[in-house]
Amino acid sequence: MYLLLLLPFTILAQENDSYILSMSEITVKQGHNDAFVQGVKAWKECYTENEGENQWNVWHRMQGEGNVYVLTSAMANWAEFDDESADTAGKNCRNIVLNLIMPHIESTKYNVSRSIPDWSSSMPEDTGLVWVTFFEVQNYTAFRNTVNAIRDALKQSNDERPGIWYASMGGDRHSADYFVSNPFSKFADLDKEVDGIWKVYENIHGKKKTDELRSTFRNSVVDIWSYIYTLKKELSN
């Protein structure tokens, strides 16, 4: 399992096609952060020196319990899971995973999601952090209708705020069913004042319809939570 965490899949070139997102959530042991980071750097150096071609991103979670990193990579389709052969570069560097990374990991969690292009916009190239909001849903039809209504209101307002939506493909019983990743270049961007999505909808449809839609949305979800993740460029490829 640990070897799979650092044998990432090839990232996609197409921005408008739906793709499968592979996510490995790694909790690092207390006091082991520096050693873990140095281990990942050593693995990345070994992988690139062996002319490995795969690409991935490493994100560090800002809030919440534990010291958590998330390794993400993308696949075009499920057929790529049928390829059981790991690339040569990954095989040549597996001892680094065993000796310099595994001893510093407390736990791991692996999930797979699919992007939703109809709800999404492209991720800026200068993304340095993402605000990710997760939704545990109980009424999928009402939830999807709400998101579609909000997206339509944003389009009518010529509001091109970036964000990529994903639908989870299985996983823990109480894990998120959907999540949206909103990118920012730097933390200072979070200080910029912009209308919230409900205000955008209200400007077009009025307060009564907004209150009705907000009530429908609240009844469609069980729980909502969010985290900020910073991109660790020195660990990504």
Question: How do the strands and helices of this protein lay out in sequence?
Answer:
Layout: H1 2-5, E1 20-28, H2 33-49, E2 57-61, E3 67-75, H3 88-92, H4 94-101, E4 105-115, E5 129-137, H5 140-156, E6 164-168, E7 178-184, H6 197-220, E8 221-231
Antiparallel strand pairs: 1-3, 1-4, 2-3, 2-8, 4-6, 5-7, 5-8, 6-7
Helix pairs in contact: 2-4, 5-6
Identify the notable features of this structure and list them briefly:
6 helices, 32% helix, 237 residues, elongated, 8-stranded antiparallel barrel, alpha+beta
What does this structure look like?
- The structure is a single chain.
- With 237 residues, the chain is of the alpha+beta class.
- It has six helices and eight strands.
- It has an eight-stranded antiparallel beta barrel with strand order 1-3-2-8-5-7-6-4.
- β2 and β3 form a beta hairpin.
- The longest helix is centred in the last third of the chain and has 24 residues.
- The two termini are 20 Å apart.
- About 2% of the residues have low confidence.
Number of strands: 8
Which range best describes the helical content: under 10%, 10-25%, 25-40%, 40-55%, 55-70% or over 70%?
25-40%
| Quaternary structure of the protein | single chain
- Major beta sheet summary: 8 strands, antiparallel, barrel
Count of separate DSSP helical elements: 6
* Strand order in space, largest sheet: 1-3-2-8-5-7-6-4
Distance between the termini: 20 Å
Strand content: 25-35%
- What is the ordering of alpha helices and beta strands? HEHEEHHEEHEEHE
Low-confidence stretches: 10-14
Average pLDDT taken over every residue? 89
Radius of gyration: 19 Å
Which structural category do the helix and sheet elements fall into? Answer: alpha+beta
CA-based shape: elongated
